[in-house]
Amino acid sequence: MATTDLTQETFQETIESNDIVLVDWWADWCGPCKMFAPVYDEVSQQHDDIVFGKIDTEEQQQLAAAAGISSIPTLMAFRENVLVFSQPGAINAQQLDQLIEQVRGLDMEDVHKQVEEAREQTEQNPN
Asked: Which is the catalytic residue, given 6, 22, 30, 50?
């Protein structure tokens, strides 16, 4: 599958309606982003079951701000609507493949349980 440009209008729906979504936050002026783009595109061709999204931080400034993007490129991985990975910096194809395998191998029942426990903890102790 090729990469998909995501916008503020399509971001949430994409995350919610797909099992695994990777998101590359980038900008045209960013050298490391330009180095990472062909790696990301190449790996996307090998994983038809994963959505490989790209978000141009210059065109989607509100979305980037809402996501707390302060350094690019930043790669995020979502699984079952949960952010399970977020890291700035370009990585190589082997590292990206390893990340994909780790995301696929997550025990999502346990992840959802941890998310729920953290949410409950926050509600009990809001400060």
From this structure: 30
Percent helix, strand, coil in the chain, to 5, is 45, 20, 35
Low-confidence ranges of the chain (pLDDT < 70): 1, 127
**Separation between Cα atoms, residue 120 and residue 116, nearest integer Å:** 6
Mutual orientation of helices 93-104 and 31-44 as an angle, nearest 10°? 60
- The pTM for the full model equals 0.91
Helices (H), 6-82: 11-16, 31-44, 61-66
Rounded to whole angstroms, the Cα distance separating 107 from 77 reads 15
Active site residue 121: no
Considering the candidates 6, 22, 23, 33, report the single residue annotated as catalytic. 33
* 33 part of the active site: yes
